[in-house]
Specification:
Layout lengths: L12 E3 L8 H7 L9 H18 L5 E4 L3 H12 L5 E5 L3 H12 L3 E5 L13 H10 L5 E7 L1 E2 L4 E2 L2 H10 L5 E5 L18 E5 L11 E5 L1 H9 L9 H8 L10 H17 L1 H22 L2 E2 L11 E5 L6 H12 L1 E5 L8 E5 L6 H17 L8 H11 L10
Parallel strand pairs: 1-13, 3-4, 3-5, 5-8, 8-9
Antiparallel strand pairs: 2-10, 6-7, 9-10, 11-12, 12-14, 13-14
Helix pairs in contact: 1-9, 2-9, 5-6, 10-12, 10-13, 11-12, 12-13
The structure holds pyridoxal-5'-phosphate.
Length: 405
């Protein structure tokens, strides 16, 4: 059997849009001893992360932390607020929106999947006007929740959540707003309270830079109210007991202690850099990546510049080129992982992650690997994408040793 420690020389480039590279500082924090989860030291850690994470979601209200992947937190958001056969409005932005809709079906909800025809919706963001129109037609208020994905990781599109809130308000509709920002949080601007989101779902292994293994539900007072009447079966996911015990920094079960150490450290790192600086860094890397793609003469999966994702860029292959074969070539020759095309765009595109613990040279190395791999695969490139990205990064370079504050 191949040893788990086997790796070629140098570091592997993990340029998938989650899990993102885990900084050494977080790995070190995770190696602290696992302590008694009922002891006093733990309570202090619990209170620290539960309070700190609110600053990342920009909320004054409780954030529930589950020892589960993002998918678990998706389920928690639905089962805590809804009842069997409830009608929910979801919007098709890509593969993750589709998986969430399938989950709603399995849970016995009635999801209505709104979207643009064919794969058109897989190149654009949530269309708030379509949501408004649909809610206006629902005079009986049979729709109990609107569920949208903030950063659609399968395509590289970041939707306007404030716009969805405005659409719901304009239709004077009481539906809850439930948002997945599993891959958007801590990379793209997000404001749970200001945008009037009722439940925000997120995860650890994307912008927060942690390994996979914990996930979140940020709540609103309306969501907590709805949870009192929600009838879908739940036990492990149920908010009430967790929120109650969280008040003193503890959980009803054994929490993921070592990932909570890393979470505390991650929140410190993000706050030391400053959230506005974190978002600006991601925006700038996203712009550099898109310049490279355009210089190559390839198309960006996101067709609407207003909703380009700062987290990842989807690169469409010319007709006849298998994107998965290109990815495999890059993996084998240059020890770099890129994101695969998922669902409706499988084999047609690949995704370059530029989130989390990334800087100018991380992106440049990733783009160099892509450029060499595309050439090896025989894809005809218009000009050098790495040169275009270097020009942009060089011209907008910032002092990386400067510390804000
Ligand atoms: C990663 C991701 C998920 C799934 O999260 P898991 O941790 O893999 O369960 C769901 N939605 C979006 C937008 C994601 O990026």
């Amino acid at each position: 059997m191949q040893s788990l420690n086997f790796h070629p020389a140098g570091r592997h480039f993990l340029q998938i849009p989650g899990p993102s590279p885990v900084p050494d500082r977080l790995l070190r924090a995770m190696s602290y001893p696992t302590i008694d989860h009922r002891g006093p030291e733990f309570g202090a850690l619990g209170r620290r992360v539960l309070s700190g994470i609110r600053g990342i979601f920009k909320t004054e209200h409780p954030v529930v932390i589950y020892p589960a992947s993002g998918t678990g937190a998706w389920e928690a958001a639905l089962v805590n607020t809804l009842s069997a056969c409830d009608h929910v409005l979801m919007f098709e932005t890509g593969h993750f929106a589709t998986l969430w809709q399938k989950m709603a079906l399995r849970l016995g909800l009635q999801p209505e999947f709104l979207g643009l025809p064919g794969t058109e919706g897989w190149r654009r963001g949530v269309q708030a006007d379509m949501i408004e129109e649909r809610l206006r037609a629902d005079a009986q208020h049979s729709i109990k929740a609107v569920c949208v994905v903030h950063n659609e990781t399968s395509t590289g599109v970041t939707s306007d959540i404030a716009g969805v809130r405005r659409a719901i308000d304009a239709a004077r509709h009481p539906a809850l707003l439930i948002v997945d920002t599993i891959s958007g949080l801590a990379s793209a601007d997000y404001r749970h309270d200001e945008w009037g989101v009722d439940v925000t779902v997120s995860g650890s292994q994307k912008g927060l830079m942690l390994p996979p293994g914990i996930s979140f539900n940020a709540l609103s007072p309306r969501a907590l109210e709805a949870s009192k009447n929600s009838k879908l079966p739940k036990s492990f996911w149920e908010w009430d007991e967790i929120v109650e015990m969280n008040q003193t920094g503890y959980w009803p079960y054994t929490p993921n202690t070592n990932l909570l150490y890393a979470l505390a450290e991650s929140i410190d790192m993000l706050m030391e850099e400053g959230l506005p600086q974190v978002f600006a860094r991601h925006d700038r890397l996203g712009e550099a990546c898109r310049r490279a793609v355009r210089a190559w003469g390839l198309e960006i999966q996101c067709a609407d510049p207003a909703v380009y994702s700062p987290v990842l860029t989807g690169v469409m292959m010319p007709a006849g080129v298998d994107a998965d074969a290109v990815r495999q070539l890059i993996y084998k020759n240059f020890n770099m992982s890129l994101g695969a095309g998922l669902g409706k765009v499988k084999g047609k595109m690949f995704r370059i992650g530029h989130l989390g613990d990334c800087n100018d040279l991380t992106l440049m190395a990733a783009l160099a690997g892509c450029e060499m791999g595309l050439k090896l695969a025989g894809v005809r490139l218009r000009e050098s994408g790495t040169a275009a990205a270097m020009d942009y990064l060089g011209a907008t370079a910032a002092d990386s040793t400067r510390r804000p504050g």
